[in-house]
Target: TonB-dependent receptor
Amino acid sequence: MLSLFLGLAAAEPATIIVTGRGLSAGETAGAAVVVLDQNRIRQSPSGRLEDVFRDAAGVQSFRRSDSRSSHATNQSITLRGLGGNASSRALLLLDGVPQGDPFGGWITFPAYATDRIGEVRIRRGGGSAYFGPGALAGTVELESAVPAEGDTARGAFAYGSRDSLDGRASLLLSSSRRFVTVSGAFARGDGFIPIVAEDRGPIDRRAPYRQASGAARLVQEVEASTEAQVNVSAFSDKRDRGVPFTANRGRGVDTSLRLVGKGRTRWSALGYAQLRNFESDFSSINAARTTSTQTLDQYSVPSRGYGFRGELLPRVGTADLRIGVDGRFVSGQTKELYQFVGGAPTRRRVAGGRSDTLGLFAAATVPAGPATLSVSGRADRWSIRDGTFFQQTLNGPTLTDTAFADRSGWQGSGRVAGEVRVGRPLKLRAAAYRGWRLPTLNELYRPFRAGADATGPNPDLRPETMIGGEIGGDITLRGGWTMSFTAYEARLDGAIANVTQGRGPGTFPIVGFVAAGGTYRQRQNLDAIHSRGLEADLGGDLGPLEARLSYSLVDARVRSSGAALSLDGKRPAQTPRQQASATLGWRGPSEWRLSGTVRALSSQFEDDLNLRALRPAVTLDGFASAPLGRRIAVEMRAENLFNKTVEAAVSADGVIERALPRTLWIGLRLR
Model:
């Protein structure tokens, strides 16, 4: 490896032949796609990936708070009002590799330093036969930065409010046949007090964070028209929730190898591995917020994810065909100490299992004059196996030792879409689709607590399935301005949600005692979530000025019966009716930049019964950059400039948690 680096460093500058990209994305005809380029990514006021996603209205995580203060398991990605659960219902990919946690499906956002991301493609709408299970609400594709998008070396270092530090650096070594990128990022801060001032007690304190990530990527031409892409990355993520016994930590290492053939018949072969571990403490807080008592020590959640993908793109006449096979195999356990007496645990619990999916897919795109038709389909074999739930007193007898029956089945996905050019400025499109998602190991086997509330797992959960359709259009205006609009309707059958089963005080299955004011819930399959809505995006340049506007309107309702009848007609938890993002920027010579972004969220409900409402929120972020020389610029960033209270959660006793308050940054960018 050292000789490779020295050889690259000594190479004469040359045109890069290797691209570092995969094959062109499938199923693009009739799709509603938002593309965020590297320029926009690097002007994010927070420098965090989840903040970049918010440029496309409708993309949301389970909580409004970001990865500096939210519990890691509360962060996910979904679109189109199909929320209500902390597991992702949209599929996140990095260079073709699924990024959801193998055990829980949540997204560890600090693992992705934005400087190493070259492009983000947000594809609203699910049912992708190409991307497969998990792409219910849509797909978010991340592509690593490549030489044409970056400098040989770059770095950014900033100091911010509450003694926060944010640093990142990357190095590129390249020749005509290969390139290597190495990048690293580090962030820390003393944090803010999550509980709003009027609800705080003596135990409430700041919630610090400390996060780091690193990645190395080699792209090598192995023969004419064929290149190999090797990725290795790692992260560490430590957070605290602002009261004693609420620290959580995640660690992970990912690696992948992708071979891409770009000759007459294009092809791709991908293999990857994910190794993750997670730890978290949980506490019970009294009504006066004077004491915090440890209730659970989730001391280890090891998980593994392995997968492969192979595809072939023959061309038959004017039609582009795509056929392939893929698989993903995950395993994991939660290891916990619980039922604390006198500050010490008295019981131990281990629960977990395995799940696999293996699929075949095919797609065809056929142009016909001004129109294009796209048809795709896939069949997946799924299995859930080796499920166990074990509890015992420490150094004592076994309380529970259950082995759950293995299950398996078949699911299908498909998409039919088309688009037609109507004159020069207007393109109309339409699509209909079906998709599905397997429940995560977290949903099947892991109980958890949030304040006084407790939620139990359900090993009998069945897969979620979704059918939907949309119509829309894209308009190209004068001066390079573009506008798109989409109307959609979707039905998520068997939607997995946390369903209220009882209230404390009382003892409930698996989770044990729930105190007065607390709620016991269990993960269950609802009859359905029915969502319909509108999306609109506008963007373009006017000389040195640039503007972007994104808006989504969602009407999502739960359809339920039986034990969940009380939820029928209610809105899914954590689903705002309206979202909007508007950015106005000025781009001057050299590194002169100035932009402001307004984001708005309508009210949403914290809980499945729609009893706890989170108020609407409007925030303003800002970014400014000025050159100090040819290779150095000073940057100033502002998050939530007017210090608005953004409610992120409300507990059973009415205590409100907030998202990030005003945060100011000043730093340098080097290249």
About this structure: The radius of gyration is 25 Å. Residues 47 and 114 are 6 Å apart (CA to CA).
